Amino acid sequence: MTTPNIEVERAKAFIIVEILEYIPNSVVIKTIIRKTTGNVTAVSFDSGEALAEKISPFETFVQIIDGEAEIMVEDQSHFLKIGESFIIPAHVRNTIKANVRFKMISTIIKNGYDEVSV
């Protein structure tokens, strides 16, 4: 079960890990910033929960802020602990699973995606 998306109040200090609660048998999503150019969300997963497998046209930056997560990319598992980050590539099958409960920040930038050269 996924709970409704709840936005964070603007122009007010907050600690993400404290404003994002765990709800039994649920995935809780709080929007930090949502723009046409991308978004930042904070997500908590109760143990045993997962997001449906998807393919995104954009890369997704994930940072674990509590607990441990399993990120599957093209059937390969990656296990992340608190403080670790991961970039999910664009155009690949992926899912995020909670073998134990965890919280994460997810960032997607849509605008200018293909314009950047290194």
**Percent helix among the residues?**
under 10%
How many helical stretches? 1
- Point out poorly predicted stretches: none
What is the β-strand count? Answer: 9
* CATH fold category name: Jelly Rolls
Distance between the termini: 41 Å
Can you name the CATH architecture?
Sandwich
Please state the structural category.
mainly beta
Account of the 3D structure:
It is a single chain. This protein is mainly beta and 118 residues long. The chain has a single domain, classed as Sandwich (Jelly Rolls), CATH 2.60.120.10. It is 3% helix and 49% strand. The protein is built from 1 helix and 9 strands; from the N terminus they run βαββββββββ. Strands 1, 2, 3, 4, 5, 6, 7, 8 and 9 form a 9-stranded mixed beta sheet that branches. It is globular. The mean pLDDT is 90.
SSE layout and pairings?
Blueprint: E1 6-7, H1 16-19, E2 27-35, E3 38-45, E4 54-55, E5 60-73, E6 76-81, E7 85-88, E8 93-97, E9 102-109
Parallel strand pairs: 1-2
Antiparallel strand pairs: 2-3, 3-9, 4-8, 5-6, 5-7, 5-8, 5-9
